[in-house]
Design goal:
By secondary structure, the chain is α/β, with parallel strands linked by helices. Helix content is about 40%, strand content about 25%. The protein has a single domain, classed as 3-Layer(aba) Sandwich (Rossmann fold), CATH 3.40.50. Belongs to the purine/pyrimidine phosphoribosyltransferase family. PyrE subfamily.
């Protein structure tokens, strides 16, 4: 697990997230892509979580979910594609690219879940393209109400490989008491 720190996947300090929320930690799973051993570990976690779901197609959420949905689709020999943040304004003007999803059971894959807005938008896009979303899968749920927001807005269950508190416990020996305490206190402020 120290490799997550060494590779810069998990960082501690002051960060502003894409949601505009300030956080004492940042998780950037894209950094794992430069480390094959970490990719193998991350994909193994995703595969374990996916074993609970029956689906036809995997769709990565742009951009963090795309590489992992692609790897998973290849390994499982399932069609895969991705969901853009918005439909492109040219060509076919689609929001869902790659695999055709019409009439298929889809799992939407993302890397990190905070508020759930990216997943909510992706689920809506898949439904608009005729797909049935049977689950959403993230590697890390930051435990900031994202899974509850997704369920409330879409009815879709979010599955995660890790919850942030679990990850913090695992990383505690490598991050120091101050960072650990700041992160735990920060998470305690979130009640869903």
């Amino acid at each position: 697990m120290k490799a997550l720190i060494d590779a810069g996947v998990v960082k501690f300090g002051r960060f502003v997230l894409s949601s505009g929320i300030e956080s004492p930690f940042y998780v950037d799973l894209r950094r794992a892509l430069g480390h094959p051993d970490l990719v193998k570990w991350v994909v193994s976690g995703y595969l374990s979580a996916l074993s609970r779901l029956k689906f036809d197609v995997l769709l990565g959420v742009a951009t963090g979910g795309i590489p992992y949905a692609s790897i998973l689709g290849y390994l499982l020999q399932k069609p895969f594609g991705y969901v853009r943040a918005g439909a492109k304004g040219y060509g076919t003007m689609q929001a869902v690219e790659g695999a055709d999803v019409a009439g298929l059971a889809a799992v939407v894959v993302d890397d990190v879940l905070t508020t759930g807005n990216s997943l909510i938008n992706a689920i809506k896009a898949v439904r608009e393209a005729g797909g049935e979303v049977v689950g959403a899968l993230v590697f890390l749920d930051r435990e900031q109400c994202g899974s509850q927001n997704v369920r409330r807005e879409t009815g879709v269950e979010v599955f995660s490989v890790y919850k942030m508190r679990e990850l913090l416990e695992t990383l505690k020996p490598y991050i120091g008491e101050g960072h650990y305490r700041a992160a735990v206190e920060y998470l305690a402020k979130w009640s869903c």
